[in-house]
Amino acid sequence: MLNATWLETFTTLCQIGHFTKTADRLGMTQPGVSQHLRKLETQVGKPLILQEGKSFTLTSAGSAVLEVGKARRTQERALRESIEVDDPNVGDVRIGCSGSMALWTYPHLLAHMKHAPDLCIHLTAAPQASIVAGVLKDALDLGIISEKSDHPRLHATPLAREELCLVLPARFDATNLSLDRLNTLGFVAHPDGFSYADDLLSLNFGDTYKGADFLRVRTFINQIGQIPAPVAEGLGYTILPKSGVDAFARQQDLAIVPLPKRRFHDLWLIARQRRSSFARIAALKDLLERTTQSLQ
C-alpha cells in the first residue's frame, strides 16, 4: 500500500507543478515536500520525476502513480459524501463551463455562497470536451455546454438560448454597416473568435464574407475578461456570447449591434444522474437554471 500522505503530497505537486507553491498549499516546507517525494520513490522503487531546473516532467512510473493519487482522491471524496449530512449548504461542488460563462456565472455563485458558509464552489473554465470528460469522471459535478451530449451516463437539461453578439465601440456609427467597414475598424480576435465570425458573419454577409482568415485582425487576446477592452477603447470589434459581454464592467463603452439574422447557441446543463441527487448539487443546478434565463 502506498503511503497516503506521501501520495497526496506527490499528487498536489503534480497538480501545482512547483515545489515551493506545493509546500505553501500543504503547510509544509519545501524540503518536506522533497522528502515525501523521495520516500514515495523509494516505496515505488523507481524515480517519479525528472527535474529540469525549477521545472520537472513525470516519468512513466510517475504518471502511473499520479493516476492512483487522483483515483484515491475521488474515492475519498465519494466516501465523505456518503457519510456527510445531505445539506444543500454544506460540501464541495465543482462546475465547469466556458470562459465567458464563468465570468457571467461567478457573481451569482458568490452571492449564493454568502448564505452558505460551509459550501465550497470550484469554478473551472474549460473547453466543452474537457467539461464532458470531467463530468463523466466525477471531476466535475455540473457542466454547462453549448452542444447537447447524448452520452448514456449523462443527463442534459436545457438552460437557455444564448445569443452570439457583434460587439462594437459605443461611439461607432453602425448605420449602413458592411463587412468593409468592419474590416476597416479591425477584428479583436480571441481563441473562439474565428469560429464565431464564421458562424455570425457568414450568416449576415454571405455575399462578401470569404472566411475568418480574410478578416483584418487588429489585436489578439486569450484572456476572456479582457476581450471587450480593446473594443471599449475604440480599437476594433469582436464577436462574443452575450454572457461575455454582460460580464464586462464598462458596459457604457460597448454596443451590441443587432444584425438582420440572429444566431443563438443552446446551453445545456449536464450532470451524472446519481450526483445531481445530492442536495448541494441540486441547489446549484436550480440556481443556474434560474439565473441563465436572463441571457435570452
From TrEMBL:
Family membership noted in the UniProt record: Belongs to the LysR transcriptional regulatory family.
Protein species of origin: Sulfitobacter undariae
Origin superkingdom: Bacteria
Keyword Transcription included in the entry's annotation: yes
Pfam families: HTH_1, LysR_substrate
Boundaries of every HTH lysR-type domain copy: 2-59
GO function term, MF aspect, one: transcription cis-regulatory region binding
Protein name: DNA-binding transcriptional LysR family regulator
PROSITE patterns: HTH_LYSR
Entries under InterPro entries matching the protein: LysR_HTH_N, LysR_subst-bd, WH-like_DNA-bd_sf, WH_DNA-bd_sf
Record keywords: DNA-binding, Transcription, Transcription regulation
